Amino acid sequence: xxxxxxxxxxxxxxxxxxxxxxxxxxxxxxxxxxxxxxxxxxxxxxxxxxxxxxxxxxxxxxxxxxxxxxxxxxxxxxxxxxxxxxxxxxxxxxxxxxxxxxxxxxxxxxxxxxxxxxxxxxxxxxxxxxxxxxxxxxxxxxxxxxxxxxxxxxxxxxxxxxxxxxxxxxxxxxxxxxxxxxxxxxxxxxxxxxxxxxxxxxxxxxxxxxxxxxxxxxxxxxxxxxxxxxxxxxxxxxxxxxxxxxxxxxxxxxxxxxxxxxxxxxxxxxxxxxxxxxxxxxxxxxxxxxxxxxxxxxxxxxxxxxxxxxxxxxxxxxxx
Amino acid sequence: xxxxxxxxxxxxxxxxxxxxxxxxxxxxxxxxxxxxxxxxxxxxxxxxxxxxxxxxxxxxxxxxxxxxxxxxxxxxxxxxxxxxxxxxxxxxxxxxxxxxxxxxxxxxxxxxxxxxxxxxxxxxxxxxxxxxxxxxxxxxxxxxxxxxxxxxxxxxxxxxxxxxxxxxxxxxxxxxxxxxxxxxxxxxxxxxxxxxxxxxxxxxxxxxxxxxxxxxxxxxxxxxxxxxxxxxxxxxxxxxxxxxxxxxxxxxxxxxxxxxxxxxxxxxxxxxxxxxxxxxxxxxxxxxxxxxxxxxxxxxxxxxxxxxxxxxxxxxxxxxxxxxxxxxxxxxxxxxxxxxxxxxxxxxxxxxxxxxxxxxxxxxxxxxxxxxxxxxxxxxxxxxxxxxxxxxxxxxxxxxxxxxxxxxxxxxxxxxxxxxxxxxxxxxxxxxxxxxxxxxxxxxxxxxxxxxxxxxxxxxxxxxxxxxxxxxxxxxxxxxxxxxxxxxxxxxxxxxxxxxxxxxxxxxxxxxxxxxxxxxxxxxxxxxxxxxxxxxxxxxxxxxxxxxxxxxxxxxxxxxxxxxxxxxxxxxxxxxxxxxxxxxxxxxxxxxxxxxxxxxxxxxxxxxxxxxxxxxxxxxxxxxxxxxxxxxxxxxxxxxxxxxxxxxxxxxxxxxxxxxxxxxxxxxxxxxxxxxxxxxxxxxxxxxxxxxxxxxxxxxxxxxxxxxxxxxxxxxxxxxxxxxxxxxxxxxxxxxxxxxxxxxxxxxxxxxxxxxxx
Lengths: 320, 758
Description:
CATH superfamily of the domain at 173-308 in chain A: CO dehydrogenase flavoprotein, C-terminal domain
Distance between the termini of chain B: 62 Å
Number of strands of chain B: 28
CATH class of the domain at 173-308 in chain A: Alpha Beta
Helix content of chain A: 25-40%
Distance between the termini of chain A: 52 Å
Largest interface: A-B, 20 and 24 residues
Low-confidence stretches of chain B: none
Strand order of the largest sheet of chain B: 3-5-1-12-9-10-11
Number of helices of chain B: 19
Order of helices and strands of chain A: EHEHEEEHHHHHHEEHEEEEEHEEHHH
Mean pLDDT of chain A: 92
Oligomer: heterodimer
Structural class of chain A: alpha+beta
Shape of chain A: elongated
Strand order of the largest sheet of chain A: 4-5-10-6-7
Low-confidence stretches of chain A: 314-320
Strand content of chain A: 15-25%
CATH topology of the largest domain in chain B: Aldehyde Oxidoreductase, domain 4
CATH architecture of the largest domain in chain B: 2-Layer Sandwich
CATH topology of the domain at 173-308 in chain A: Enolase-like, domain 1
Mean pLDDT of chain B: 97
Strand content of chain B: 15-25%
């Protein structure tokens, strides 16, 4: 039979002290939507659970700092997140269900380090930095270096993920996360794609075409005519590798180029070549590759739409 | 018909407040003093010899009160085919085979004990594909059965198929497949078995067949050395059935055996994972179908050959071909029909009834094939269906006597609401599809009796207790029965208390199946209520000095229709009868068994006294890059005879539609080598509220003469035509026909890519 102690400290210091007392055989628990399931499945047999729910140090949610203890629901309802970090907002709107989002935290989602973690790809394209604290000090890690493998991170024993730092981007920047699922709620992505694009300008003449029902190739044609250039780009992919990854070659192929249908098709293909999806009950490898191709293209278009039509269509149920 | 007060009104479910407030006691909530907890050890292999089974360590674990294995219990087999022992000895035939059972002081101790049982297996080659299992020389799942094909030769032949084939101007032939799906009851299976000092058994259960279960358990007790003992079934509140609780299962017999052994009540409760892998789902099928019609589009013949994966043992799943025959012979007018079906043993889980009882599998093949035929004949699929649609007064090839039939009205409603003419073929990637259905709507004689009994008593204050054999499994029978009784007795619906959960108290009923409860239990309640009403009016007639026929009863007052001054309160007349010398308390009983027929040897006969028809139509949009299918509009029209409660009826249509959408698009028990790979709601894609499009329910009333107030059954029909309607719409939208369910984005995209290549 399973017995464990339960603690609910008020400060980071206290939490770290408790972990030391249990000689690292305790488990930190935030929302519990992953930990409790693992305990129920007997995959986790902790001596104690140390709840982080009362730790105020983890709750910062301002400007360029997002505390690890911030819930997905808080992110979803935060207009600042929606405006400046749209990709993260997309993830927060689509993780689990409202009930889960009410308790699940962004820190928990990242520390579980599932290849399908919804907030991982957005944080990757937003160049987030993770601040890790321990009894002896703190260190900052680039989010791309945080993930090691499925369920594995650079977090050491006795270390807590405190918060994420994300810089503000220029006006000419837009981001998006597309979660491709079988169901509209309570699902994990078959593939998750996040894209961040910075354009050379945002006064695009073909602005209205983006929301019209014109075919994608025609809109791309307008971009080409207007010499709309991609100054910077990030593309991240979930569920196509043992951990969420960036499609660096695809990003490089996009950077500094004038947008055209041909370019975006090439970029999508490059992203596919950087993915190594597997067959599983949740999706077949060929389909995942195919979706990378489609969703990278749609992600780029959606990110551009958010730059040139800011605040108008934030999360339509249908993308292109 | 006279003005109705309760029937036909959208009265909220009587059991809803208790369920919403958390007051309802499900089997999960029940506790009996001194109760132990049972857990079951399942096989580790789909097909293997049990070489060694050692329970010594488990028995020694503190808190363990009993450990049973196949060799320590009396030999006994249960199930439709009596091929399933509650604990297996010698060999296991599937991964859900029960090997040992433990009773302990807590579920955790019982679970830990399972881990201490040592089993050594010798793995045997296994069969997971029914086609492989049918092959000559295939290994035998049950050696004593001599073959893997069940000896149930399902065969229906009507007319002259060869002649019809010669006459046909257009013929289509194809093969369709359906998948394993499960009921997904929110209330998982469970029971408590408890013996009294005289060895009479009380079973607390969430069964949907209390009286057949009672019989099964009595027979089992007989073989356990307890002949002529009494069995009482007390049902908890039931969190859904959908056919899953239509049989008795190993876990129930194990609870009984553990209770006998320990002399304590024993509770066995399924975890969600067990509910997925150890209950019996709707089987997968392979259907070869061909259809032919004249040049003008008149249907000439239908030929179907079906293979059903029975799994390792036999429950009602093996008898679903009987109900499949209903649409096969009687959906549309088709004079020449041939149908054969084989149920085949495999090392998979074993199959059971599930809402629709085979009808969804058969209708998927029929309605997809009909669309193909309409296209070949160059006729609009709607026109083609309408031309061949059934009509009232018809006797179908299987000898079904169609009384009321509103299928044409249903089709018209679907056509109009979808905007079939005009909107169809207008938009790239959008498509329309439709499909019709027929199902039993007036009981179904699959057992010796199709009856249901009702007892009604009324107290000194006009409050009514209705004891009905029918069970409330969420479908709303309690409310329907109350509405009917309130209508006849003229008392407020809140004064009607329905008791429907105790075999010691309630009269017999065959069970919740075949969409029969509103019809059969409704007619039974109606009969009892009318008898009681007569008694009341007779009493009042004497007091009011009026002929009983001149009296009416409404709002708990009896009054003369001729003279408004002549009236008396119901309670008053009841009390005066009670306290008069000699005293009289009013009770009435009625047993209704519909005049329907069992099938004869040729599988013909009027199975039901009424038939429910309907048509569903859907507009879809297909994302050609991802293969995703979006439902734009969904219309579900049903001929229900009469809506006794339009709100509950719409609920049944929505619920059916949602289940049908899951069947069509997402639900699939993924089996690999006999093991279910997705035994949880994360990976078994039961659709969520967010996935469901608005379903437009259209109620067509045809006033069925045999039904209570004109009603027919509606429990199952809602999910029957969904999958073919969607498959047809996808074909209409993008020109690819998906012939195996579920229609996943992968399948659609793959088909689109193949079409591009061509």
